[in-house]
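U., I forgot to send this yesterday:
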Amino acid sequence: MKRFDVVVPHKYTKDGEEKTAWKNVGTLVKFEATADKAESFILEMNMFPETAFKVFEQKPRDMGNIPNTSVPYPTQDDIASPF
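Result:
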């Protein structure tokens, strides 16, 4: 098992020089492959302490079998003005 820090950058200026502080927001845990199991990952986010997110490799999807459930963004004409 190997653990990785998940961080976000925070830019700030000190003595006229721009610097970056790295805030820890979670941990990525990697489990090595064995004879019985493939390599796997778990993402632990500090903002969701009771949840362990499973991480899977993305695979190409056959888009022909997936229904189009997307909704278009409204245009300015679709939005009623309160004035």
